[in-house]
Amino acid sequence: MPLVPPYIESLQPYQAGRGIESVRRQYGLSRIAKLASNENPLGASPKAVEAMTRTFGGLNLYPNGGLELREVLAREFEVGVENVIAGSGSEGIMSNIIRAFLCDEDEVLTTEAAFIGFQVLARSRGVTYRTVPYRDWHYDLEALAAAINENTKIVYLANPNNPTGTIFTRHQFDEFYRHVPERVLIILDEAYFEYAKDNPRYPDSMHYRYDNVITLRTFSKIYGLAGARIGYGFAHEELIRNLLKVKLPFEPSTPAQAAGIGALADPEFLHRSLEANARGLRYLGQGMEALGLTVIPSQANFVMIVLPSEETAHHIFEEMLAQGVVVRPLGAFGLGNCLRISTGTDEDNRLCIEALGRVYAANTGAIRAG
Ligand SMILES: Cc1ncc(COP(=O)(O)O)c(C=O)c1O
Predict the structure, then answer these.
(1) Is the pLDDT of residue 269 over 90?
(2) Which residue among 15, 38, 91 is best mutated to probe the pocket of ligand 1, counting the most ligand atoms within 8 A of its Cβ?
């Protein structure tokens, strides 16, 4: 089909994790633990839902481009409203960044097996996409700095990273930043910021308001609003001004914007979610290690396990699915021998370890030694 450019033809359509209903129907199960998409298992912030519901009477009116949310965020984070953008999830803003700043000859640089959403968006622009391998499942910032060339326009860093769950530290970022020319835009994707922010080694990018750094955050994770599609970003006013030129004018939707504002006013839900996640990470980590699995220590709301082969990973994924536990195979990210498992409710986490234990018991030895 000559109408389709080769860089679009070669993309794989996004494959979402399996939905609860389809797994329930396929296996005739009553209880499903969906641990595939790093969602908040406690649901959404009740204040967000309330605020969203209040907008329903005005759905006949067009939204205002996220202005109220931008104002709230500007106050909360002590920046100007001209330094804030709101959009349809942080991926919506990422897509604007790709459209606003990349020219045909520019290159994008990131880690191997980066967040799949970014991979797809960058590749769909048809520019050169270069990667550097992980070092011990962390971004290798030294190698990334060394790989910057005269065509590099964007460096994408997710911190904490998806799918590994690891972070780079303040010190590492400071060192890296010293080597990045001002003409290179750094996207700091902090979708999992709230889970890592209390780690003293974590570099909260609001302390790095450099002119060439864009911070992206989202309400999809800790605030439990993945279905509402609402995210935000902070950057120099010149960058935001140009992003606003390409952003679809009526993103985010009115209910999504209200949900974001409501969520910010709900510290109790945030606190409860953080506690449940910390409990989940501990439980899953200990349970998996007791089975002899290789678990990467995580600063987010999921863990990654490394298995001896792609076949083993696929087998475990299928076996767990049949027991009602949906986890995420990482072939699409480029890590076919790994699985990513989100923290769930206490009950979900128990089901997960029990299911893994049964798979393990039936395959002694085969899944050890990742
Ligand atoms: C690193 C990272 N960035 C961005 C996103 C997308 O977030 P949003 O729902 O705000 O588009 C995700 C979601 O999984 C993610 O893991």
Answers:
(1) yes
(2) 91
